[in-house]
Amino acid sequence: LQAHDEKHGTAFLPTLAAWLDHYGDTKGTAQALDVHPNTLRHRLKRMTEVTPLNLSSAETRLALRLQLTALLG
Fold it and tell me: Where is the PucR C-terminal helix-turn-helix domain (predicted)?
């Protein structure tokens, strides 16, 4: 995601971090990112299209949270 963000000017990594911080709450995440909830949904959908991420999996979300904590601090 980081490489995709750098190459395409997207904000997938911070979007994913915020979404995980808000436990998948679309409204809270959208407010935190100052974007419309539909924008957030579109970003999440695009993330799953450009990566093999399965965001509906609890194990995947936990692994991502741990990796993001290690990457971003």
Answer: 13-69
SS3 sequence of 28-67 = HHHHHHCCCHHHHHHHHHHHHHHCCCCCCCHHHHHHHHHH
Task: With H, G, I as helix, E, B as strand and everything else as coil, classify residue 25.
Answer: coil
Judge whether 67 and 61 are in contact, CB under 8 Å.
no
- pLDDT one digit per residue (tens) for the chain, 73 residues: 999 999 999 999 999 999 999 999 999 999 999 999 999 999 999 999 999 999 999 999 999 999 999 988 7
For the entire predicted model, the pTM comes to: 0.90
Q: Does domain 2-72 bear CATH number 1.10.10.2840?
A: yes
